[in-house]
Design a protein that fits this description.
CATH class: Mainly Alpha
CATH architecture: Orthogonal Bundle
Order of helices and strands: HHH
Distance between the termini: 51 Å
Helix content: over 70%
Number of strands: 0
Shape: elongated
CATH topology: Helix Hairpins
Mean pLDDT: 85
Oligomer: single chain
Structural class: mainly alpha
Length: 101
């Protein structure tokens, strides 16, 4: 499979993630869109690591690091969403002003 196919797939996933972050109002959907963007980056790292086989495995190591960071981000993000829902009974991103000074 050519590298360009994988890069186009990753670009489409990243674009869908950016659209989801910018257009969605529900906090859980924004977190899902961020996960899509991180997975697109992982696809790029693995594709370039496979394409440049003689340089070792740094792309795969970075991909595992991103997966670990994404798991932590989901845990913290969902905890914040649950806390906001308990206090406000709404998780609309547009209506949140809890983090403002």
């Amino acid at each position: 499979m050519p590298l360009s196919y994988v890069l186009v797939l990753a670009a489409l996933l990243f674009s869908i993630g950016v659209y989801g972050v910018l257009a969605r109002q529900h906090a859980v959907l924004v977190l899902l869109s961020i996960e899509l963007m991180l997975n697109a980056v992982n696809i790029n790292l693995i594709a370039f690591s496979a394409w440049l086989q003689d340089t070792g495995v740094p792309g795969q190591v970075f991909a595992l690091f991103i997966i670990a960071v994404a798991a932590a981000e989901v845990g913290v993000g969902l905890a914040l969403v649950i806390l906001i829902y308990r206090n406000r009974r709404n998780v609309d991103v547009e209506g949140l002003s809890l983090m403002k000074w």
